[in-house]
UniProtKB/TrEMBL annotation, chain A:
Domain annotation ABC transporter: ranges: 4-234
One of the record's GO molecular function terms: ATP binding
Protein name: Maltose/maltodextrin transport ATP-binding protein MalK
Pfam families attached to this UniProt entry: ABC_tran, TOBE_2
Record family assignment: Belongs to the ABC transporter superfamily.
Keyword Nucleotidyltransferase: no
Annotated transmembrane regions: none
EC number: 3.6.3.19
Enzyme class: hydrolase
InterPro entries reported in the protein's UniProt record: AAA+_ATPase, ABC_transporter-like_ATP-bd, ABC_transporter-like_CS, ABC_transpr_MalK-like, ABC_transpr_MalK/UgpC-like, Mo/tungstate-bd_C_term_dom, NA-bd_OB-fold, P-loop_NTPase
Keyword terms of this UniProt record: ATP-binding, Hydrolase, Nucleotide-binding, Transport
Gene Ontology, cellular component aspect: ATP-binding cassette (ABC) transporter complex, substrate-binding subunit-containing; maltose transport complex
UniProtKB/TrEMBL annotation, chain B:
Swiss-Prot/TrEMBL keywords: Cell membrane, Membrane, Transmembrane, Transmembrane helix, Transport
One annotated Gene Ontology cellular component of this protein: plasma membrane
Principal location: membrane
Any matching Pfam family: BPD_transp_1
GO terms, biological process: transmembrane transport
Membrane topology recorded in Swiss-Prot or TrEMBL: Multi-pass membrane protein
Regions that span the bilayer: 12-39, 70-99, 111-133, 182-203, 235-255, 281-303
Family that this chain belongs to: Belongs to the binding-protein-dependent transport system permease family.
Entries under Gene3D superfamilies matching the protein: MetI-like
Protein name (database record): Various polyols ABC transporter, permease component 1
Length: 344, 312
């Protein structure tokens, strides 16, 4: 097990710079999730840690050693790829044993480790099959098994669930969480799915355009997003934003009175609730209802035309859908600077 | 009438045409191989037209079997085909892997690599045997003469000269000779067909999964281990295709053998058939049937070997 320290890491491809000085501290045994939209540099950063991309500038330390010049196989990392990247011509057993054979490990030890990993992942029954004969979920387990047998200091996951169907994704997500609990190894996990990030992470790193936007525990990011980007990225559906002019006359003075150019008010859909006209923060008419069974998503249009979403259990009976009033608890109302997007 | 009947009826003309296309020549060859049939005979003019009255049974087969050149022709056919296949696969692999990485001018290099394939076999043979392999006027002769001259010059050196004077004079190899003409054929056909292997291997290499290679890097595999465990199995099918197609093509080599040595010392089966066919059609047909048998024997061996790769 080991900690990972990333200092001022920069990545350039020719003249284009894609990572702009990333700093990050990952504690021993932590489960860290890199999250962000496509092209934000999360995979590049992971591949730099793995050694599959070289580091243009800055340093990456694993377990206290600078690994910039260390060969990928010697860094004590193991990676699980999005496409599984199993060796198609080898059996499951040999897929897992390949890395150990390359390291010239003793046959008995290899056998012991492979069978142990097979037990953990429930794949002992098909150790002699080739990957072709396996389903997507089984292949992903083999890929994870291949990482486990090497007993790495750090596990790297590159969007491991995105090729699985929805049900399997939830199940495998749970298994990865269990695996982390069981092994206690440092894990770094890349995804673009904020649900995976929220459920798995001890610490989430939100990236955008090669920069770290915010680092923190999932709840911190949800409750106190540093800027509008993080606020929108974490949580589903996205946070609603209102200009002061969109708010009702009864809204608190400090929200409504704010300068039009300076303030953006953010409220999550699940924190909006229907209320009396006297306490309304925003008044809106109903545009469309999406009923998901356990709750409904009401697509609303505020008086000035701002569109937003309110999440509630059911639409109140007999409500006048042409003018509904919404409010939210004061601690659930986020204030952002409009120009910079930073939290106020 | 089942719903399969109409499609089958519609396919029938095509299938029949193909059957006729194949069966008629084969049937005629079989028929000719059992009769006496020559193009020109003053002594027995009745043999010059194919007729069942001239029935000879297995006589033609016996005649071919006991012919001096027959076993050499079979041996040569197999030897030439095997050598060409082995060399083209090895060179094809090496070149395909070399040009698979990106470098300036890769497009031009690829076109140049393919170009030998567009040279006509006869032209190819003429170029090689006269301009490259010729012991006097060809590149080979010039190179050997140059080497001899160089060694000659080195003999005048003090001390070291004594060592070089022990060296014998190099003599160029005559590739038209009985013992070497098969090698000439192998060299020129390998040159011409390596591009075919390169072309097929190159397309296959481009479809290789890059993440598998990255996984192997993380597993600590070196270049050779990756080639051995990932690239080579990935190329199994294209190699099988190259081997099969070339085996079929090179069993019928003719132009190169004709041009290199007029069959002197390295007749293969098609060449032997050609020789019989100058007059004795019956014997030529019997040799043709032997060629069909040989081709089938080789095909069965190949299918056993590579069929598994193709089925997966």
């Amino acid at each position: 097990m080991a900690s990972v320290t990333i200092e001022q890491v920069i990545k350039r491809y020719g003249d284009t710079q894609v990572m702009h000085g990333v700093d990050l501290d990952i504690q021993d045994g932590e489960f860290v999730v890199f999250v962000g939209p496509s092209g934000c540099g999360k995979s590049t950063l992971l591949r730099m840690i793995a050694g599959l991309e070289d580091i243009s500038d800055g340093t990456i330390e694993i377990g206290g050693t600078v690994v910039n010049e260390v060969a990928p196989a010697k860094r004590g990392v193991a990676m699980v790829f999005q496409t599984y990247a199993l060796y198609p011509h080898m059996t499951v057993y040999n897929n897992m044993a390949f890395g150990l054979k390359q390291a010239k490990m003793d046959k008995a030890e290899i056998d012991k480790r492979v069978r142990a990993a097979g037990e953990i992942l429930h794949i002992t029954d098909y150790l002699e099959r080739t990957p072709k004969a396996l389903s997507g979920g089984q292949r992903q387990r083999v890929a994870i098994g291949r990482a486990i047998v090497r007993e790495p200091e750090v596990f790297l996951f590159d969007e491991p669930l995105s090729n699985l169907d929805a049900a399997l994704r939830v199940q495998t997500r749970l298994e990865i969480a269990r695996l982390h609990k069981r092994l206690g190894t440092t894990m770094i996990y890349v995804t673009h799915d904020q649900v995976e990030a929220m459920t798995l992470a001890d610490k989430i790193v939100v990236l955008r355009d090669g920069r770290v936007e915010q680092v923190g525990a999932p709840v911190d990011l949800y409750e106190r997003p540093k800027n509008t980007f993080v606020a929108q990225f974490i949580g589903s559906p996205k946070m609603n934003f209102f200009a002061p002019s969109a708010l009702a006359a009864t809204a608190p003075a400090d929200l409504r009175g704010g300068s039009e150019d300076a303030l953006l008010v953010g409220i999550r859909p699940e924190h909006l609730r229907v209320c009396e006209p006297s306490e309304a923060i925003v008044t809106a008419r109903l545009d469309l209802i999406e009923n998901l069974g356990e709750h409904v998503l009401a697509h609303m249009v505020a008086t000035d035309g701002t569109e937003f979403i309110a999440k509630m259990e059911t639409l109140p009976e007999g409500a006048d859908t042409s003018a509904m009033q919404f409010t939210a608890a004061p601690e659930r109302v986020h204030r952002f600077d409009k120009a910079s997007g930073l939290r106020q | 009438m089942s719903d399969r009947t109409l499609p089958r009826l519609l396919q029938t003309p095509a299938v029949l045409l193909l059957l006729v296309w194949m069966l008629v020549p084969l049937g005629m060859t079989l028929f000719f191989s059992f009769i006496r049939y020559v193009l020109n005979s003053l002594r027995r003019p009745e043999w010059t037209s194919p007729s069942i009255d001239n029935w000879r049974g297995f006589g033609n087969y016996q005649f071919v079997w006991n012919n001096d050149g027959f076993w050499l022709a079979i041996y040569n056919s197999v030897f030439i085909v095997t050598s060409i296949v082995v060399f083209t696969v090895i060179f094809g692999l090496a070149i395909a892997i070399l040009v698979n990485r990106s470098f300036p001018g890769r497009g031009i290099v690829r076109v140049l690599l393919i170009s030998p394939f567009f040279v006509m076999p006869a032209v190819n043979a003429v170029l090689w045997i006269n301009m490259i392999l010729d012991p006097v006027l060809g590149l080979q002769g010039i190179a050997v003469a140059g080497l001899n001259e160089m060694i000659d010059g080195l003999r005048d050196f003090p001390v070291l000269g004594g060592f070089f004077s022990l060296w014998p004079e190099l003599s160029p190899i005559s590739f038209r000779a009985t013992q070497t003409s098969a090698y000439a054929v192998i060299i020129m056909v390998t040159w011409q067909w390596t591009p075919f292997a390169v072309l097929i291997f190159m397309t296959s290499l481009q479809s290789e999964d890059q993440q598998q290679k990255e996984a192997a890097i993380l597993d600590g595999a070196g270049k050779w281990s990756m080639f051995r465990n990932l690239t080579l199995p990935h190329l199994g099918r294209p190699i099988a295709i190259v081997v099969m197609i070339q085996a079929i093509f090179h069993l019928s080599l003719y132009a190169e053998i004709e041009i290199v040595s007029r069959g002197n010392g390295n007749k293969n089966l098609p060449y032997l058939i050609g020789e019989f066919a100058t007059n004795n059609i019956g014997a030529a047909s019997a040799a043709g049937i032997f060629a069909v048998i040989l081709a089938n024997v080789i095909a069965i061996f190949l299918l056993r070997m590579v069929g598994k790769t193709l089925m997966d």
